[in-house]
Amino acid sequence: MTPQELRNESLATKMIKNLNRRNMEAFYCPTAEEAVKKVSELIADGSSVTWGGSMTVRDLGIPDMLRRRGTLEVLDRDLVEGEAVHDIYLRAFTADVYLTSANAISEDGVIVNVDGNGNRVAAITWGPKKVIFIIGMNKVAQTVEAALSRARGTASPINAKRFDIKTPCQVDGMCHNCNSPESICSYVHFLRNSRNKGRHVVVLVGENLGY
């Protein structure tokens, strides 16, 4: 193993204990391939499943994996347009499984997300029976404050570029703590504890994933 791989494994072991203490189930997968396999194992046949606006979920090919299984009700927001997208946003609250990533996670297990529309953080908070996070180790920050800084100063400007929205961070790549009508940070969310044991599951991945 490389020094980077050894560090990721050691840190992930510590983080899993911290996440368990917060009533969350957690796993570490050294590779993206192993992470996709683990996610599939966590989703029972017959489940309804959907996901948020996560590049990690898409880049890992998870939507295709779910469709290939043929035993799931896949609510795919990427295959519809207009009002049908909003309908899937609403149906997410009654889904068996909701897949997402995170903008950042602290070493002690607090998961931080910022959201423009609020549908993703709403589903993380309440509704779906199970929420599965797939989080690359590149998103780990030492403290909650550092995790928020990463979410707003790194992830948000990149996503603003991705969506081509009119915010100051889209122009220069820096957070301005703006009140833009198109702000991608309209909703700031901290998941510090899972109220219902088994509802929130975290799959840490020893690769750089997403933004």
Keywords:
211 residues; alpha/beta; six-stranded parallel beta sheet; four-stranded mixed beta sheet; 8 helices; 40% helix; globular
Descriptive notes:
The protein has a six-stranded parallel beta sheet, sandwiched between helices. It is 40% helix and 20% strand. The longest helix is centred in the last third of the chain and has 20 residues, at 144-163. By secondary structure, the protein is an alpha/beta fold. The two termini are 25 Å apart. The model has no long low-confidence stretch (mean pLDDT 96).
Kindly state the percentage of residues in helix.
25-40%
Count of DSSP-assigned helices: 8
Given the C-alpha coordinates, what overall shape results?
Answer: globular
Percent strand equals 15-25%
Strand order of the largest sheet: 1-10-7-4-2-3
Show unreliable segments: none
Please outline the helices and strands.
Blueprint: H1 3-21, E1 25-29, H2 32-42, E2 48-51, H3 55-59, H4 62-69, E3 73-74, H5 83-91, E4 97-100, E5 104-106, E6 111-115, H6 119-125, E7 130-136, E8 140-141, H7 144-163, H8 168-172, E9 187-191, E10 200-205
Gist of the model:
The protein has 211 residues and is α/β, with parallel strands linked by helices. The chain contains eight helices and ten strands. The chain is globular, with a radius of gyration of 16 Å.
